[in-house]
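Sample intake sheet
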Amino acid sequence: MICLLTRQTALAKQLRADLAKLGIGCTVCDPASRTGIDAIYHPEVAAIVVDVRVDALPEPAWQDMLASLGRRIPVLAIGRDESVHVPGTGRLSHAVTWLGEPTSAEVIAILDACGVIGAHRKRIDREGVPIYNPQVPLNMLKENGALSVLTINASSFRKIAIEYGNEAYQRLQDVFQQVLFAMWGTPGSFRSADTLCRRAVHSNTFYIFLEQSRLTNAVPAPGVLEHLADRLLLRLQNTLWGELFLDRKSRRLPDCISTIPEFAVGHSTAIYNPCVDSVEMIEQLLDNSAEVAKVQMRRMKDRQRELMQTLIQTADMLMPNYQAVFRLPGLTKEMVDQAAQGKTMKPLKSHLYGFESLIRVRREAVDARIGTEGLVYLESRFLRPDVMFALAQSSKVALELDQACLSQATTNATRLPGVLMVNILPRNLYHVDRIAHLLKARGDIMFEVSESEAISNFDLMIKVREHLARLNMGIATDDFGKGFAGLERIIKIKPDLIKLDRSLVENIHEDEPKQAFVRGLVEAAKITRSVILAEGVEKWEEAKLLQSMGIDLIQGYLLHRPQAADVIHADILVDTPAETGPQQLKKLDSVA
């Protein structure tokens, strides 16, 4: 029997009718009377639904009574009143399920999850992840004699709010909850009989309480829960990372989010002991599982570092492609169209300036070396450059990955004509003499200082620039207008080349503010004697306007898509390098 001690007569009437349909007895009592309070202690009462306050008892006494009852039977407190939490103790938050203004169906769903109704939760329609109800694990522990839990800790999601704002953070939370809910009961995740819940309305912690029938009422054998936690984490990781690689129409995550923050899955098991307070047992179970999640997080970071180290040290896993850079003055639409129709660079060969190295991962080599055991928690198809460097940064091997990319770029470009443009982190450029062996004695190199890292020592960078000039090498500011690549870099180090980020180039022919900004930059470049390169050009209208504005160099899909060095060499049939180095830059200076 279920006792309703509430003045919410409409809800009580509907509950009584709905419970009757399920064959569950129900009694309704007046919370203002002492008789009503006495009714909740009737031996046949299996659960009670009460108001958060009653007139018959002082508030502290009523709270103590509910906390005591909640350790014996399910108690649902109704009403939007924060006073149901005992100040400083939170006793009711552990022993009583309190609701604001629930519907009859919501109350029945919670009662059913607590084992009172016996519908085994399959008769209750699910529309989303429910909020954690402490009486659900209490009932499962007593009913089964043991209880296992998986704890999903995604607390690191909060840094999205700091970096990208609350809207992006809330969207990530929503998508994560949707993904987790969609996995409920699907093969390879966790079963429909298991209980999934969220710790609180806006919490990033989720619990999965496992039915003990998973192993014929026995507790899981050693290693079983760890394997289940790893499998669930791997599936969640790959599903969320897959969201980042969808087209804009299908993608549910905001465009500003480029990587998924780390999260982990812990696990623990408790055996029912009638001599120990059950509420404390549940609290200890959840604490133990949370600690295991921290261990898994550290293990995951170790695996990520091992993955990065493997990419760095294995010769065939990193593969450079090269995108051509062309002189823009004198370039015509006829040349561009002819090159596109013939799928060759030959019509543009006379305007060729050089090539930029773009590092990619050879997925087949990564999969062959690492396998599909899931130990790295990330599929090789997600290892695009920005993801690789984000993982390398968090694993403290960003400099080593940067050096490996530099080595691959120069090693594979020995027969490419013109200037070779390579990305480099400022901290590596400070010590360019120490990594000179990676350059393969090639002198026509333009170092693109990465926008992902701040320049901490401009005086040293200026000395490096002067040293490179003596070696017929140069410095470029990469992706100007993005990340750390701002005006301060141009003013202080006076780079040989300024690369405009694609965001400044895209549809510039239709954007007057962009045009005004770029014109001002062209004037500034005349003073610093820097060459300007527009990257990401995909339309002739963009190229034509940039040409009229005095831009020196152009790069983008309009002219050439990245290719392997041997493919490029076979296309343009070049046997001797074109004129490169400072002499070529001096010719371009006259344009700027």
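Comment: The chain has a mean pLDDT of 83. The CA atoms of residues 120 and 485 lie 59 Å apart.
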